[in-house]
Amino acid sequence: MAEDPRVVFAVRGITKVYGTGGLTVHALRGVDLDLYLGEFVVLLGASGSGKSTLLNILGGLDSATDGQVRYQEEEITTWSTAQLTEFRRDHVGFVFQFYNLIPSLTARENVALVTDIAVDPMSPEEALRMVDLQDRMDHFPSQLSGGEQQRVAIARAIAKRPGVLLCDEPTGALDVRTGIAVLRAIERINQEFGTTTVVITHNAVIAGMANRVIHISDGLIQRIDVNESRCDAGSLKW
Amino acid sequence: MKAIDRKIWRDLARMKGQVVAIAAVMSCGLAIFIAGMTCQTSLNRARSTYYAESLFADVFANVKTAPASLIERIREIDGVSNVQTGIAEAVTLTVKDFAEPVTGQIISLPGSVETMALNRVTVRQGRWPVRGRGREVLVSEPFFEAHKLALGDRIQAVLNGREEELTIAGTGLSPDYIIEMPPGGFLPDNLRFGVIWMPRDDLEAAFNMEGAFNQVALSLGRDANQDEVIRQLDDLLEPYGGLGAYGREDQLSDRFVSDELKQLRVMSFFPPSIFLSIAAYLLNVSLSRLMNLQRPQIAVLKSFGYSTWDIGWHYVKMAAVLVGLGTIGGMLLGSWMGRVMTEMYQRFYRFPVSLYHADPALFALAASLTALVALAGVAGAVRAAVSIPPAVAMQPEPPAVYRRSLLDRIPFFRGASPSLRMLIRELERRPRRVFLGIFGIAFASSGLIMGNFGKDSIYYIIDVQFGLSQRYDAAVTLHRPAPLRVVQDFRAIDGVESVEPVRTVPVKFWHGPRSKQTSVQGVVEPGRFVRLKQLLDVERKLVQPPEEGLLISVALASALQAEIGDVVTLEILERNRPRREEVVTGIVEDFEGLSAYMSLPNLNRLLREGPAVTLAFLRIDQAREKAVYNELRDSPEVAGVSLKRASMRSFLDTIGENLLRMRMFNVIFATTIAVGVIYNSMRVVLSERSRELATMRVIGFRHGEVSTILQGHLAVLVLTAIPFGLGLGTLFCLAIAQALTTDLYRVPFVLNRETFGVAILVVLAASFVCAFFLDRGIRRLDLIAVLKARD
């Protein structure tokens, strides 16, 4: 196993089988992967390719059927659900396709939800400034556009200063313009804080932003492209 | 089965917990309705059938002794169609293997049932007694059964001071004793009081009443004026010591049945309507939530060409299945409860016809009632959901709208944690639902209070009546007023420690337009005798009948609407019927119904006679109780002896089992409501908030932290509901006490601390059970699926 100190996640031989008996689905069929500190990775694949399963296992939301995942020095595949909760609480920032904000809390309070329980968080205001929402802090989700809601979700994810930011189709429900604003926010976090960032998408254009693009299909990594030069989010078009 | 109908079963199976909870609440409401109505129709039907078959009279009167020749003149009163005279006397009885005092009412019987013009006695076992043949009698069926007697058995009776042996020729029932109340008792006591019928000739001879009667009953023609008949009958009887005629509505046994029917009417209307409203509300909340979840499904169905009507009908059918379950459950439970309760009534109310009658029309009525309630619960939810156009329904529901409220301005709230804010804003956003949820739980708590109210009330009666008021061991009633020297006679019996003489006289009271017929007790002046019956006011303080003036019981005060200081008119229903006005100087806490007390010298002055005794209270050495009783029984003056310990035991025996059963029903129903409301409300909240709760779990909140948000919601509902429920329960009990209080007995409004404690504990226990299921629901949230799906 890699001893490279720059490796944040070391994934070895991960398989995931859903269902039992005759009707089983192999979502992952033995994935090996290292993710490096501060790296921006795009996971590209069709739906059902296994990319979300991989992301969920990395984030401690799902457990692998076989194989090992090391986060820094710890092997998380052996952890209990309680330990995984602590792992998510302290180290992982999640961003989802459908934002999942708490409708009864304002933007600021949605972020405070996380900063209240984190060990060394930034202030909610600071997190919202990072995503350019300093003027909308006291709005409820129902008063925000889809792009704004997603940026609140990003602020919520990064406010705890996570070791890793995991984004599952963050622009999937957005139009181009707002999608780019969201990607800019993610890009900024990655660059300013050096947070290891994994973005799932099936939009190949986004791959241009990444250090590495990992193509997944049928539960296996098909190939990994390394971008010599990354384009910035603002220049993307689709 | 069509595919869309299959969906109904699958959807219902998925929400089975809620389905069971709603159906259970509905079943309870329906069951109470059916049971109450079954008892009511059974009792009503049995009574009218029996009255018609047995030619039950319309007007009744007692008289000291009237000559048989008077019958013709009574018959001539305008409106009278039939007259039946007879003799009725109080007797003391001795039944083998039963050591305690037994009293009875012995009533004359003509030669055959056909010659009974009115109030015909039905022979249940054996045969009509034959006169002169070894003192044959009929005994009342409940008495016969209580003592496990057999035909041909003998019982001892003291008739006019002579001990006689009576032979049981048969058992009987009569319409004037549907319920056999011992004189002065609260409840039937078939071991210690029985009715006995004896051939008239034999009874006349025993009481020296040849050619005379002391009891008369009349039936009236269709257009008769009852008040006028009563007035004329009183005039005819007055010279012979008439004690005041009264109509059927004041006849003791009929009165009890009528009061019971009145209570049943309250019971079959009030609680079921609340139960069914709660069920309708739960149905509405659960279906609204289901249809919200199924917005995309509704849209898809519409895009396939299902009409709005088709979809509306689909959900109505779904509700119908649920309501059907509740209805079937309610009918099964209701007919069982109806049977159990009718059996309970059968022990008090005796009819020669079968009491239980399940009316199919009642079940049809019950079913249409629930259908109506269900429709009310479903209509709004279905209309709202099906009217969404398909394109809109395909869109995810927009985020729920929340806004800042007054609470946000409170400094405490500004510093509150986000989860506390989530909780408070959620409560603020749905005030109607929160209120109804609180009301539902409050109603459950009030049900628990009502369940124990009966017990508290009865223990209070026992405490006051048997503990504080009755300081005697035995009450001895005399056949007729006796000179004061009987006190010395009683005192001389070995074992009697002290005696208090009392004079009772039948009277009629007037106050304004109200009048009541009862009796007044003349109480000896303090100092002359030891007072063995204490009179207590409503604060349980000792009161004395004044030199001049009158003390009246709470029940009489309310019947006459008289207060302290009011002047009431009283007419003595004896001798030349003297009338006098008296001031009410106090109100007495007395559970025996309409009673009144005045000082003995005052009463004697009114009667214009010397001191006389009709009733004596005795304190007896426990060790000599049996001997004292035997000696008293053989005394010619004594009509009956009742031992306090025995009446207390019988009171507890009779009431204990029924009370337990009613409490059990109450507690089961209240718990069902509590669990039904809490579980359903919280299930819906869990479903609505599953997405945010899952999000919180994903971003690192621990299970306990997330669970706390819902438990907090639950706690707010329950903790607000409990005090509200205790208050509501107190009000309900007050209303029940008032509704149940009649001229015959008074139900005191008393609630013990323990009753409140038990109600709180049961509601909390129900909440803990729901909290457990809620917690399990949160544990089972599929974090990934929830986040992947749109709302």
Describe the structure.
The complex is a heterodimer of chains A (238) and B (791). Chain A is an alpha/beta fold and 238 residues long. Chain A has helices at residues 51-58, 81-91, 107-115, 124-130, 146-158, 176-193, and strands at residues 7-18, 25-36, 40-44, 66-71, 74-75, 92-95, 164-168, 196-201, 212-217, 220-226. Chain A has a single domain (38-63, 89-235), classed as P-loop containing nucleotide triphosphate hydrolases (Rossmann fold, 3-Layer(aba) Sandwich). Chain A is built from 6 helices and 10 strands. Chain A has a 6-stranded mixed sheet, sandwiched between helices. A 4-stranded antiparallel sheet of chain A has the order 2-1-4-5, covered by helices on one side. In chain A, helix 3 crosses helix 4 (124-130), helix 3 runs parallel beside helix 5 (146-158) and helix 4 (124-130) crosses helix 5 (146-158). Chain B is an alpha+beta fold and 791 residues long. Among the domains of chain B are: 56-254, no CATH class; 430-469 and 644-791, no CATH class; 496-620. In chain B, strand 15 and strand 16 (542-543) form a beta hairpin. Chain A binds chain B through residues 52, 56, 59, 61-62, 82, 85-86, 88-90, 92-94, 96-98, 100-105, 109-110, 112-114, 116-118, 140-142, 149, 156-157, 160, 168, and chain B through 396, 398-403, 417-419, 421-422, 425-426, 429, 691-692, 694-703, 705, 783-784, 787-791.
Would you identify the regions of chain A where 5 or more consecutive residues have pLDDT less than 50? none
Strand-pairing-aware structural class of chain A: alpha/beta
**What's the CATH class of chain A, please?**
Alpha Beta
Shape of chain A: globular
Structural class assignment of chain B: alpha+beta
Q: Largest interface by residue count?
A: A-B, 39 and 35 residues
Give the helix level of chain A as a range of percent.
25-40%
Number of strands of chain A: 10
**Straight-line N-to-C gap of chain B:** 30 Å
